Amino acid sequence: MTTFSRRDALKFSAGLTLAAAAGGFSCVEVASAAPIEVPTIDKLSVRVLVDSASDIFFKPQAVGGVKTEPGRSSDSRRPLHSEWGLSLYLEPERGDEKRTFLLDFGWTPETINGNMELLKVDPSRIDCLIMSHGHFDHWGGLLGFLDKHRRVLPADLTMYAGGEDNFCQRYVKMGGQGELSDYGMLDRRDLAKQNVKVVLCEQPVVIGGLAFTTGKITRSSIEKVLPNSLVEFKLKDGAGCNASHYLPAEMEGKIVPDEHIHEHATCFNLKDKGLVVISSCGHVGIVNSVRQAMEVSGIDKVHAIMGGFHLGPAPADYLKLVVGEIAKLNPDVLIPMHCSGLNFTEEAMRQMPGKVLTTTTGSRITFGI
Questions:
Q1: Residue 270, strand partner residues
Q2: Which parts of the sequence belong to the Metallo-beta-lactamase domain (predicted)?
Q3: In a 3-state reduction of DSSP, which class is residue 166?
């Protein structure tokens, strides 16, 4: 796996090449070695549209210049709904310039659409979409969200996805005999029907002039991909993923443990504070993800690490080691969500006292206060 120096990282492509794909669908891939300019922002607001837990007694908190506030349903007879999954409404600002990005879409359209309504979140403000990786609990609500809101979204709507791996068929093992159960496949033809263009961010890409992605994450830490789904590398009649440009030919049609080759993190450079790195699930390792953001940006200071870290299933000894590696990154704030696990939160509070912020479905997190 290629390792990039910081100077090389800043020479990643900003040039984008259009490529025709199945079903008339167009995708945009980083193709050249032109540099990207890592943008700086003044403020960032994150609204948690979907997460795995609700708490109607949630109280405001503040740590390291970051604050969290509760989000309440606007209808006292209808609660916000929590489900296994994640969706974040991101609002970065720089001066008078503002953008709105929707990162991931939860498990079901009923949850993301219902919570947006109850939180009075305006879908017409969304400039673009970001998909972190190909797990159903992160994109399951997408098509239903588009069915309801596509008409108010930009005509040239773009979704930034980590890479071709996002469109693979996935399975999970069920029952005592380990039978395979369908865990979903995002069909790019469904996106074509909604006139959504996809940017495959296998290398770093600037989003909306205010955010950037890590691109494919180098795996250099002690972290390992913990057991999760199985993935099938197969493209048939326009559905599935074309793995020919990044995997050996013999992988075609194989069903293997999922390594999330193209999972990526969404990042911001907050003025005078440092990096905010958002890992939706962190299967490839949260330390690896943050290191990649540092490599891409050339910025050493980490202000906040947030999102899902997929350490809920981690053995205690491994968890302790990983939290120790996170502590070495010296973030001002750590904000675990979704699949991070209560075990992770407890260990992080033990090793990094005074740095951990908790959230709940509906919370607003504000940076740059």
A1: 41, 274
A2: 96-149
A3: helix
**DSSP-assigned letter for residue 356:** B
Amino acid at 72: R
What pLDDT band is residue 35 in, cutting at 50, 70 and 90?
Answer: low
**Structural domain boundaries in the chain:** 6-367
CATH class of the 6-367 domain in this structure: alpha beta
CA pseudo-torsion sign 204, 134, 160, 293:
negative
pLDDT in tens, 267-313: 999 999 999 999 999 999 999 999 999 999 999 999 999 999 999 99
